């Protein structure tokens, strides 16, 4: 790994990712194998004036032992100190940077029903705090190379060469080469132009078809907008980039308006286990049938996490001829694979996709058709021959995607 590129990457994550402000706190979440990157991130955060940087280290192997040996009662208990920590997040609104590097299949063998049951127990306690924070924080998810993840992506390389190859792919996908900040400013401008065009069409429905069997209609919310690239934190108006890398233009569909079937284009790593070659069939907006060659029971568990987990929360448009897809790599990590081509997400929708969302109450947002759920899971559906036709409010059909790429 080139140290100069690592420093550029850390600077990008701090300045363009979370955009830490002078006097603000930063929370960094990373695995114990990411000391070099985290050190550079902490340095840059203090350089730009961060008041305090808190680092929370994780270890997938240890987490696996927790799920194996702790009782369901213990896993389902929210301690007082955890509640106090959430209260502090609500009051201080620290920026949050999540660095992902885990083995995509590293939780294989863990009792997924046990994990699901514990999450169902803890989520209602945490949800009031999550609702208070929503749209107010600056946050960013980014990747970092690790030996186990790298060997998954490059199984034929030695461990050291695989790690280097994955770092190269991460830096390339994240536009770190050269002037990273300027690269992202230009990229955000391009994404904004696409959003402006799509929003001018006043679409009410998207129709997806592909030779793999995908045939799906998704209804859109009348006053929802397409977004992409950077976002603005509610209240502070601070600009940040929640995903690095990001190629998507997305919006939140209308709950209850999805009909048909869609087939996955890439594996999905969920809860540290892989789900492969799967399909989801929708009726009246809800996933009523799922099939998978690998991980079908896990997929069924996912859409039953709560009453609304089976509804769509996001539709995202990404050209098949994207920088990430053109690497020819399967990353086995949603942050990267979701930005290779089009994807959908099951579960929670985004309230900030509603135009002037800050003027509405949560109840009013929900009534508009934003799905609310304890999960938000992206899965990849973009194929080389995918067609997406948009239906406008006047009934006009407009080709949005043709042969997997933008038609405009």
Can you walk me through this structure?
The chain has helices spanning 3-18, 35-47, 60-69, 72-75, 80-92, 112-133, 147-153, 159-173, 180-201, 296-303, 334-337, 362-368, and strands spanning 25-31, 52-58, 95-100, 139-143, 203-209, 215-220, 231-232, 239-240, 243-244, 249-251, 253-263, 268-270, 273-283, 286-294, 312-317, 343-347, 376-380, 387-392, 397-402, 405-406. Helix content is 35%, strand content 27%.
Mean pLDDT: 96
Helix content: 25-40%
Low-confidence stretches: none
Strand content: 25-35%
Number of helical segments with 4 or more residues: 12
Give the overall shape, derived from the CA principal axes. globular
Gap between N and C termini, in Å? 38 Å
Structural class: alpha+beta
Rg, rounded, reads 20 Å
Q: What does the main sheet amount to?
A: 9 strands, antiparallel
Count of beta strands: 20
């Amino acid at each position: 790994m080139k140290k100069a590129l690592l420093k550029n990457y850390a600077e990008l994550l701090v300045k363009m990712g979370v955009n830490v402000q002078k006097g603000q706190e930063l929370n960094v979440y990373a695995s114990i194998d990411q000391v070099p990157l985290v050190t550079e991130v902490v340095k840059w955060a203090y350089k730009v004036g961060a008041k305090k940087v808190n680092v929370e280290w994780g270890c997938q192997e240890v987490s696996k032992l927790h799920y194996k040996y702790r009782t369901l009662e213990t896993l389902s208990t929210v301690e007082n100190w955890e509640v106090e920590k959430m209260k502090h997040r609500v009051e201080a609104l620290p920026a949050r940077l999540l660095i992902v590097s885990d083995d995509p299949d590293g939780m294989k063998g863990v009792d997924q029903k046990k994990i699901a049951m514990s999450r169902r127990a803890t989520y209602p306690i945490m949800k009031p705090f999550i609702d208070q924070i929503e749209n107010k924080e600056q946050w960013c998810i980014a990747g970092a190379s690790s030996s186990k993840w790298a060997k998954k992506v490059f199984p034929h390389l030695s461990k050291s060469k695989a790690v280097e190859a994955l770092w190269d792919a991460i830096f390339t996908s994240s536009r770190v080469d050269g002037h990273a900040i300027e690269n992202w400013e230009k990229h955000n401008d391009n994404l904004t132009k696409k959003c402006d065009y799509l929003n001018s069409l006043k679409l009410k429905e998207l129709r997806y078809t592909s030779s793999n069997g995908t045939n799906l209609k998704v209804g859109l919310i009348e006053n929802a907008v397409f977004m992409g690239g950077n976002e603005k934190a509610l209240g502070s108006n601070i600009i940040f980039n929640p995903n690095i890398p990001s190629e998507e233009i997305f919006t939140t569909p209308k709950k209850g308006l999805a009909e048909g079937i869609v087939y996955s284009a890439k594996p999905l790593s969920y809860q540290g286990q892989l789900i492969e070659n799967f399909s989801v069939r929708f009726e009246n907006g809800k996933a009523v049938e799922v099939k998978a060659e690998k991980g079908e029971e896990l997929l069924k568990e996912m859409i039953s996490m709560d009453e609304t987990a089976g509804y769509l929360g996001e539709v995202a448009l990404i050209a098949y001829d994207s920088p990430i897809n053109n690497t020819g790599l399967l990353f086995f990590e949603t942050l990267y694979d979701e930005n290779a081509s089009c994807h959908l997400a099951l579960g929670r929708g985004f309230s900030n996709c509603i135009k002037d969302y800050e003027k509405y109450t949560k109840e009013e947002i929900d009534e508009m058709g934003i799905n609310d759920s304890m999960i938000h899971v992206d899965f990849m559906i973009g194929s080389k021959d995918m067609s997406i036709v948009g239906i406008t409010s006047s009934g006009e059909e407009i080709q949005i995607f043709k042969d997997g790429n933008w038609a405009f």
